Structures are given as structure tokens and as C-alpha cells.
């Protein structure tokens, strides 16, 4: 049995662009419309960076969220933080030529 969903929205979760679930040895109670037995299941889920950013941007204290995904397993999240009407400015960009071990610790 296979179930595929697109643009799946769940409470307290970013929108899932695509969900693909494969199940084997499935027993369903048709009268009660419920799963009785499941031998095995495998799922693939696709989440897009703009959907993660929109989810985080809706949280109190996070503004202007930008999410970048890099294969295979890297995510970068940038945001402006604000609390009780105060906001912290975004960090100033650092030039690699200005970097040294001494300044990295300060």
C-alpha cells in the first residue's frame, strides 16, 4: 500500500511539500476505518526551505527568517530576534581578512 500527500499542513509544524509512505502487510478494519496491523513502513518527506522559514517567522521573537539548505544534511537559519518590543540588529558581516584566532575569541 502507498499513500502520497502534497502540501501537508499539520499544527505546530512546517508545511511538508511531499510525503510518500509505503506500507506492507497492512490489515485494515473497514468497519471502524482504522489500521489494525502493519508489518513494515517506509516514508520519504520533502520539506522546502521557504516553508521552514515561514514556520519559524510565525514564532514570537523571530523576524525576517531566512533558511538555506545545503546537501546532504546542512541547514542555515538566519533571523532577527526581538523581545518585548526590543530588537537586536543583524550582525555586521565579517571579512575573512580581519579574522584571527585572537579576535575569534573576543
Mind explaining what this structure looks like?
By secondary structure, this protein is mostly beta strands. It is built from two helices and six strands; from the N terminus they run E-E-E-H-E-E-E-H. The protein has helices at 49-57, 101-104; strands spanning 2-8, 16-29, 34-46, 62-70, 74-83, 86-87. The strands form two sheets. The chain has a three-stranded antiparallel sheet, with no helix packed on it. Strands 4-5-6 form a three-stranded antiparallel sheet. The longest helix has 9 residues, at 49-57. The model has no long low-confidence stretch (mean pLDDT 85).
Q: C-alpha Rg, in Å?
A: 22 Å
β-strand percent reads over 45%
Average pLDDT for all residues: 85
**With helices defined by DSSP (H or I, 4 residues minimum), what is the helix count?**
2
Main beta-sheet annotation: 3 strands, antiparallel
Indicate the overall shape: elongated
What string gives the helices and strands in order? EEEHEEEH
List segments where confidence is low: pLDDT < 50 over at least 5 consecutive residues. none
What would you call the structural class? mainly beta
Q: How much helicity do the residues have? A: 10-25%
Amino acid at each position: 500500500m502507498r499513500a502520497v500527500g502534497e502540501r501537508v499542513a499539520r499544527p505546530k509544524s512546517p508545511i511538508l511539500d511531499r510525503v510518500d509512505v509505503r506500507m506492507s502487510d497492512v490489515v485494515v478494519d473497514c468497519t471502524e476505518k482504522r489500521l489494525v496491523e502493519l508489518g513494515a513502513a517506509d516514508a520519504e518527506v520533502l520539506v522546502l526551505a521557504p516553508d521552514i522559514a515561514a514556520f519559524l517567522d510565525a514564532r514570537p521573537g523571530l523576524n525576517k527568517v531566512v533558511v538555506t539548505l545545503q546537501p546532504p544534511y546542512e541547514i542555515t537559519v538566519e533571523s532577527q530576534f526581538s523581545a518585548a518590543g526590543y530588537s537586536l540588529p543583524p550582525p555586521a558581516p565579517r571579512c575573512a581578512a580581519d579574522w584571527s584566532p585572537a579576535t575569534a575569541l573576543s
